[in-house]
Amino acid sequence: QKEVEQNSGPLSVPEGAIASLNCTYSDRGSQSFFWYRQYSGKSPELIMFIYSNGDKEDGRFTAQLNKASQYVSLLIRDSQPSDSATYLCAVMGTSGTYKYIFGTGTRLKVLA
Amino acid sequence: NAGVMQNPRHLVRRRGQEARLRCSPMKGHSHVYWYRQLPEEGLKFMVYLQKENIIDESGMPKERFSAEFPKEGPSILRIQQVVRGDSAAYFCASSPQRGNTEAFFGQGTRLTVV
């Protein structure tokens, strides 16, 4: 079982729709969860992070965390073609060294 | 307010040569992480360093790869005797502390072995 799993996609949504990106993780003791966006040929850029169960909103982005289900998601409201990118989920584990473990990413396509 | 700086941005090496990748963390950050990314793949953890210490090198290949983060100067990822399979994008990230904090990435070094 992979430590952090994401559907590779591509996930296609029409412009203006809500895009929902999902991520599951295996380390039940994980404390911190991060979403990064990576455009093709570029470096990952941090979108948002979440530590507590529930929802966290930042502009058009909402991160949702359910530690009991070991599940974290990212919702993008009013999706724009410029949101087309690969979205990487990262989890900081508790196995002593606090390194960031990344999923393989979900490719999102927003259709104009 | 400079971000994480990596250089060079592009590096071409012949098989058997050495590659040195540099990473200067954001101001105030003392924790550095190195990742490797192959085309169309995710970020694979390589090594986590704090100033003068290797905290976790569980993702580093046993041979030819080494990393350091000296008291002064940038963190260095060194690949000796490069092979074609080392061709990848190498990203560095930094954070201000250990645990429960965001990490920010540099622009990466794209290594091509010919």
Task: Describe the overall structure.
The complex is a heterodimer of chains A (112) and B (114). Chain A has no helices and 11 strands. Chain A has 112 residues and is an all-beta fold. In chain A, the strands form 2 sheets. In chain A, strands 2, 4, 5, 9, 10 and 11 form a 6-stranded mixed β-sheet that branches. In chain A, strands 1-3-8-7-6 form a 5-stranded antiparallel β-sheet, with no helix packed on it. The termini of chain A are far apart. The mean pLDDT of chain A is 93. Chain B contains no helices and 11 strands. In chain B, the strands form 2 sheets. In chain B, strands 2, 4, 5, 6, 9, 10 and 11 form a 7-stranded mixed β-sheet that branches. In chain B, strands 1-3-8-7 form a 4-stranded antiparallel β-sheet, with no helix packed on it. Chain B is mostly beta strands and 114 residues long. The chains are: A mainly beta (112), B mainly beta (114). At the A-B interface, strand 4, strand 5 and strand 10 of A face strand 5 and strand 10 of B.
Concise account of the structure shown:
With 112 residues, chain A is mostly beta strands. Chain A has no helices and eleven strands.
